[in-house]
Specification:
This protein is mainly α. It has 7 helices and 2 strands, in the order ααααααββα.
Length: 179
């Protein structure tokens, strides 16, 4: 009999986010590549899932696969706007939002293809922007009311992790359910 993963593994299938000890051009390039690939990888993760499967939580008391896809679109759209703000303003204070409340809104029940299309366009713009800025720009940042000062290097690494984290929620569920 196969042992089921523990709650920590189900919640954080690629581990919790840990910022790199240092930032480099190679690390930035790898993170930007992860963002470039996310729309394709997320689409592959949900390919051929039925409505019932899309509406299955990835863990007990967790979001459904559908909500995860819409959450990634919401969160990455916010991240893109926040990055544009930090590139055009001097350490702006950003507004946090209640992710769980957003996931419960009616648009989180739409077909996942809507958010997959949004992510494809958004990530094309986002990665183009990130590839075009200077190394100095990666030291710019914003102030998060709960997280304090965050430089772009750290934020980029976090969205690399976020991309892998939520894709793994779906692929892990598929593996456990043998879909």
């Amino acid at each position: 009999m196969t042992q089921q993963p523990d709650l920590e593994t189900l919640r954080f299938p690629v581990g919790r986010f840990t910022p790199p000890a240092s930032y480099s051009l190679r690390g930035r390039e790898a993170s930007i590549e992860m963002l470039r690939l996310l729309p394709e990888r997320l689409a592959a993760a949900v390919a051929d899932l039925s409505t019932e499967q899309l509406d299955t939580p990835y863990r007990e008391e967790g979001w459904t696969v559908r909500q995860v896809v819409h959450h990634v679109a919401d969160r990455h759209a916010n991240a893109y706007v926040r990055m544009k703000l930090l590139l055009t303003e001097d350490w702006p204070t950003i507004k946090p939002y209640d992710e769980a409340a957003w996931a419960a809104l009616p648009d989180s029940s739409l077909p996942v293809q809507i958010s997959l299309n949004l992510l494809e366009a958004l990530h094309a713009r986002w990665t183009t922007l990130l590839k075009s800025i200077s190394a100095e720009d990666f030291r710019r940042g914003y102030v998060h009311p709960e997280g304090g000062h965050q430089e772009l290097d750290r934020v980029l690494a976090m969205y690399d992790w976020h991309s892998r984290h939520h894709t793994a929620h779906i692929t892990g569920l598929r593996a456990r359910m043998r879909w």
